[in-house]
Every structure is written in C-alpha cells, then in structure tokens.
Amino acid sequence: KAGVTQTPRYLIKTRGQQVTLSCSPISGHRSVSWYQQTPGQGLQFLFEYFSETQRNKGNFPGRFSGRQFSNSRSEMNVSTLELGDSALYLCASSFVPQETQYFGPGTRLLVL
Amino acid sequence: ELKVEQNPLFLSMQEGKNYTIYCNYSTTSDRLYWYRQDPGKSLESLFVLLSNGAVKQEGRLMASLDTKARLSTLHITAAVHDLSATYFCAVRNAGNNRKLIWGLGTSLAVNP
User: Fold this and answer.
1) Which of A20, B9, B31, B38 counts the most CB atoms within 10 A of its CB?
2) Is the separation of the CB atoms in A25 and A93 below 8 Å?
C-alpha cells in the first residue's frame, strides 16, 4: 500500500512569491492534516480537511490556505511568502480525523 | 488552550541503559500519540493511548498513560543505537476544536 506522497520535495522561493504544495493521502484515507515544522517552534498544526471540508484550523495568518478535492488529495497554498515561512511542511492522512495520522516525507521550503 | 510539554528535550544515553521520556498536557484529552522522527525523515507512528492506565509495548519501547495526572511516559529499556531519533508526543484536544497539539520533541542519542 503506497504511503502519503508530497510534491514537490524541495522548493526555493523568494519573498513575496506564492507557493502551492500537494499531498496525496494513503488510499482510502479521507482526512488530511497539514503541519509546519521548524527547529524553533516544533510541529504546528495548520489545518485539517475531511471530505473536502476544513474541520479545524491552526493559528496561522490568512496567507496560509488549503483545500481538499473529491479524491481526498489536498493542496496548501502560501501567498506573499516571508522569510519566516521557511520550514518543512508535513502532510498526514488518516481514515477519519480521530484516527492515527500517517505522515508524508514533507516538502522543504526555503524562502530567500 | 491545550499545551503539551515534553522533557527532557535532549537526552544522551549509553547503550544498555534505561530511561524515561515524559509528556505532560494541560487539559482533558481523549487520546495521546507517540511518534518517532529520524533525522531528515518524516514522522512514524509508534503508539496511540486511549484510556487511563493504557500501556503499549513494542520492542524496547513502552508507553503508558495516566489521564488523571495528564501524563504519559515513554520508557526505553536497554537502549540500542538504532533508537537514536527524536520522539514526539501529541495530544488531541477534547471538545469542539479537536486538533492535535504536539510537544517539542525529545532528541535522543544512544551512544555505544
């Protein structure tokens, strides 16, 4: 069974640009969560989607947005990138929101 | 708001020794997870603990949960080098906003 896949794996952008990250969950999983991981702040929850609906949202500015498609694939978008957005962005999927989450390899974003 | 604290944050230990990592959380929760992350890799699920007194074991790792004390422990028995990694606990918020809140992680180095 294929795991969670994320694309791209690495990305370099400059301040002010926008970026879209993609996540394909494990087959059959309908819940997708996104996290930002940085050395200083650890893992911080961005948002959670289930059946194309955003169920929960973390404390991030409106520049961070996401969506989920009918096939459960999810994308997150960050507009007007700032240096502080440099991080590892992790996607995790589960059958339903309450169940154990399985993580993808992450997208490492560097903002210059 | 739910807060999760892990200690220690850094742990260097010798092979063959035992040690315990602690995870405290501040408000009611109905499930607690332990994950492992190897350097440069994604997170791997280790345990999910659902009820007071729950104990789970896998190899040299044993996790337990005391919901009254709002404390989980991850005990390492006779450590080996392969256990070197960062260990995270994560607690799911009870109530309406059921997001997962993460500890900062415990970076474990097992030395020969």
Assistant:
1) B31
2) yes
